[in-house]
Amino acid sequence: MQKRKLNDLALIKGFKNGDSEIIKLFYSVNYAGVSRFVKRNGGTNEDAKDVMQEGLYGTLLSLNSSGFSLQKSLGAYFYIICKNIWLTRIKEKIAERKMKEGLMIEADLNKPGEEKRQEELVRLLVFKHMQSLREECREILSMYLQNKPFKVIAEEMNLSSEGAARFRKKACLDKLLINIKEDKDFKNLNNEGYL
Fold first, then answer.
1. 183 and 127 in one domain?
2. Domain that includes residue 164, residue range
């Protein structure tokens, strides 16, 4: 495909009409910048591709929403969307790692009795709310906690891609965390200063 510059109006029209040539051109022109940002911030080429796909979807949704007004170039707008997606993923990875560490805590016999009791309550809360999730979410989170690669999760759950497996895991984890945070026992632990 010949690389050519398009103005924003042509790009927006191409996006709205689903013109695959314009979308491919836009992708190829913007990939290097997004990929560089993702890799500088701990990501891989695969992460960059996932972010690009989510960014394209987000851009398309924005373009089709009523009242959308482009204040910058479409490329700059797209870059900002992708940057925000990756920064959100970094925050989620940190939160997931903390949750994973919390799930894997083994009782330390040297800890005071109250601390052990509180840790046990946290484990029970996680278990209780894991059981209340849909079976698909329980399976995805269970495989994730067993450190299975997203490719394997996608295959075992009949999902279309690793990106789809990541998206489902995120949605399931978000639901789990919301349920836990709304639980009165969690609020009590939080008020006691344990969390």
1. yes
2. 105-191
> Which is nearest to 48 in space by CA: 20, 92, 9, 79?
79
**Which residue has tokens 């209340």?**
132
Using alpha carbons, list the distances in angstroms from residue 57 to 106, 120, 134, 173: 42, 42, 26, 22
Q: What is the DSSP letter of 183?
A: S
Residues with Cβ within 8 Å of residue 47, at least 6 apart in sequence:
38, 86, 89
Of 90-99, 132-141, 178-187, minimum mean pLDDT range: 90-99
Whether 1 is covered by a domain: the verdict is: no
- How does DSSP classify residue 143? H
Q: Is 65 exposed, middle or buried (0-12, 13-18, 19+ CB in 10 A)?
A: exposed
**C-alpha radius of gyration, the chain, whole number:** 21
Q: Is 149 a domain residue? A: yes
68-72, 101-105, 145-149, range with the lowest pLDDT: 101-105
Q: What is the pLDDT of residues 77-106, one digit of tens each?
A: 999 999 999 988 888 877 777 666 655 544
Q: At what angle do helices 45-64 and 20-40 cross, to 10 degrees?
A: 130
Q: What is the pLDDT of residue 4?
A: 43
